[in-house]
Amino acid sequence: MNKNTHVIFGTGPLGMALLRELKLRGVQDIRMVNRSGQLPGDDKVQVIRGDASQGSDAIEICKDASVVYHCAQPGYLNWPKQFPALTKGILEGAAAANAKLIYADNLYMYGRVNTPLKESLPYRAEGEKGKTRARMAEELMNAHKIGKVRVAIGRASDFYGPGVLKQSFMGERVFGFALSGKSVDVLGNVDVPHTYTYIDDFARGLATLGQEDRALGEVWHIPSADTITTRQLLQLLFDELGSDCKVRTSSRGVVSILSLFHPMMKEIKEIFYEFERPFVVDHIKFVREFGDHATTPHKEAVRHTVSWYRNILAKKNGKQ
């Protein structure tokens, strides 16, 4: 029986970044889980097809696991209906294996705040996605408190980086559009501070939580590089490309009108507050407990992200 198996639910950009990080840390036995059972481009890792929302599937997949990472999520429009069952299934799988469960979370549950975001903040989300995130976090922490499963939650802000396409507001419609010479699309006020997380830094933080038993039973904000404005991050992108692109910003009014016709705009309207005022994430708790956690400077992170997008575009154009 191998109790050094690390199971990663979800093979999106965060799951793949975590796979890379665990390999760097010398983890040999990694089990990736998704609905297709396929993982293009990596034939050196076990990939299992499964539906984590089915407890029986999750229990079978997690057999002999030492750490289970929950990096899976349904489509953005389906969170309230599908996310709780997905999380419950993964919880049951980790509990049956007596494995640690590390849950990759975001920041929606806090709702609107006028201060830097700290782990001690109450959950005051007004929208359904934020409330869904809050309920799942509470259920996971309650499961830890009663001794059902050992849990740690790692939270990060809007992320960008290799593999990040439609899963982020700083994804394809910014980096992809810029590389294609199109206007980039952003939300709200581009001149207020906003914490952005490089995807590899998020993965690094989650891997640390998986290794450290003292992380269990707690919520942690994963360290990000220095908080800058959206305009400053865009300028780093334009500097890397060697030319500026037109920036198209959507105001609350525009999003509100579009939300009458487009379901995605209705979902974005719920969390638009993040982009109207300073949105700064405090990660001092993590640093105090685990030491100075090296983060990737935005300039370097942007360079790596641009390189990844260029490779993707080159492959795409090569097929045409």
UniProtKB/TrEMBL annotation:
Domain spans labelled NAD-dependent epimerase/dehydratase: 10-215
InterPro entries xrefs: Epimerase_deHydtase, NAD(P)-bd_dom_sf
Pfam families: Epimerase
Coiled coil: none
Name of the molecule in the record: Saccharopine dehydrogenase
Taxonomic lineage from the root: Bacteria, Bacillati, Bacillota, Bacilli, Bacillales
